[in-house]
Amino acid sequence: MMRAWTVPILLMLCGSALAAGLVSSGTAGTAAAVLLLFVLLAGVNSPLIFPKSVGASEARRLSEIDGRPVVFWRPGCQYCIRLRIRLGRGARQLYWVNIWRDPDGAAEVRTANDGNETVPTVVVAGRPHTNPDPAWVREQLSPSA
């Protein structure tokens, strides 16, 4: 779990140090802007922007029932963040599996990607798709929406 928060914590620490240096040199406005930027970057790279994760077995079971896609992701992955942001509110319709918290999910991703933990890996109707276009994923939501 700590691994998921390493990048956001480092961003917050760097932003705080930089802002403190700017405040001490008398540029409080710039310091506030820099700190805000680093807080936003930390938020985007944290697990907080993703819908609640479920385990791989639970996601598979639920997907078989209602046909919704399963997304395997990990915090800090720029492609996962891109997918999440481009899906907008539709992201809540998918089942999200954090591979850093679920060893079964990580194993499933490795099986689908020749031993690599390449994310996002989206499973639709039992078929894995590695780093698919967000527009395509949105189209897969239409039948179940």
Explain what the structure shows:
The protein has helices spanning 2-24, 28-44, 56-66, 78-87, 103-112, 134-141, and strands at 70-73, 95-98, 121-124, 127-130. By secondary structure, the chain is an alpha+beta fold. The model has no long low-confidence stretch (mean pLDDT 90).
Label this structure with key terms.
alpha+beta, Glutaredoxin
What topology does this entry show?
Layout: H1 2-24, H2 28-44, H3 56-66, E1 70-73, H4 78-87, E2 95-98, H5 103-112, E3 121-124, E4 127-130, H6 134-141
Parallel strand pairs: 1-2
Antiparallel strand pairs: 1-3, 3-4
Organism: Streptomyces hundungensis
Pfam family, one: Glutaredoxin
Keywords: Membrane, Signal, Transmembrane, Transmembrane helix
The run of helices and strands is: HHHEHEHEEH
| Structural category | alpha+beta
Please tally the β strands and state the result: 4
Shape category: elongated
CATH C-level of the largest domain: Alpha Beta
Mean pLDDT score: 90
Radius of gyration, Cα only, in angstroms? 18 Å
Concise overview:
The chain has two domains: 2-48; 51-141, 3-Layer(aba) Sandwich (Glutaredoxin), CATH 3.40.30. Helix content is 54%, strand content 11%. The protein contains six helices and four strands.
